[in-house]
Amino acid sequence: MNEPTPNRKPRVAVVFGGRSSEHGISCVTAGSVLQAIDREKYDVVPVGIATDGRWVLESGDPDRLRIESADKLPSVDGAGASVALAQHVGSTDLVVSEPSQPPRTLGEVDVVFPLLHGPWGEDGTIQGMFEMAGVRYVGAGVLASAVGMDKAYMKIVLQAAGLPVLPSVTVTAREWAADPQTCRERAATLGYPLFVKPARGGSSYGISKAHDPSELDECLEEAMRHDPKVLVEVSAEGGREVECGVLQALDGTPETSVPAEIRVTGDHEFYDFTAKYLPEEATELDIPAPLPPGKTKEMQGLATRAFEAVGCEGLARVDFFVMSDGSLVINEINTMPGFTPTSMFPQMWAASGLDYPALVDRLIQLALKRDTGLR
User: Which ranges carry the ATP-grasp domain (predicted)?
Assistant: First the structure.
């Protein structure tokens, strides 16, 4: 693995966009990170992945990557110059190809900051590519990324570690097509109301609530528009939504942020896309969350255990329900939480004493210290 050349700034490739339905949110996240990276300390190369999978050299203009509305999200300009990692062993060079021009190199990449959300990026696929190429990168490795992306397997891992999760069943498109009645009966054993989610989705795309059996079919069909594997889960009725950030110190020790509570307002029954990314319309945040000191400590301990159970590295956001009896249940773990200006992860760390630029710098420094391969 190449070490950064002495007397030059480490080169950071910020990779964003991607083929998933969360392409636009990834672009928004990248805009915030690109604005925050210290250009005096790092040489930054913005690399976009278009919706067709093409890698291109992006402008990196944060203003172009801002969110305007729920139906007007930024996207990668696929017409840019093609970018690829050099295809020979031991090289971490970025090679740029343009029509009627010989390929040119941008030099070695010291670390990649992958800001991809959803499949083909947050799920271990791109992490595997970086491992094969011997390129350092920010965040969780292959297995942790894959487990964190698949909500069904995530629950299996967390349960095996003795951590509390909500009861659920998994329904695949094949099962639904072959025997829908059995799928309905399996869901009914959980009791209504139920939440129906794409098992490997994010940003609340495709999530809906089935209040009774008459709504289940439509909810399943909506979730399967995003993923052929669907999680049907007990609704945490009366539960408060509270999140906790986990971030490794430079010695690898997991540290936790103050928790934050999300209170959905208006006509939003749950924390949907609009509530997440246009929060002035639909949410109120309490940072830190109003919890008894003992409950905060318990949540931070569970967040650390979840981080370690999944095998995370770098960062994660662990989402909880605080039930009406005061008990804690883990909703999910997110191995690449959003970094938009309104995202909970950076807000929690800012309230814990680590502002946005310092948070970005910590993640890059962690990645520079970490080897690829078995560790």
Answer: 155-365
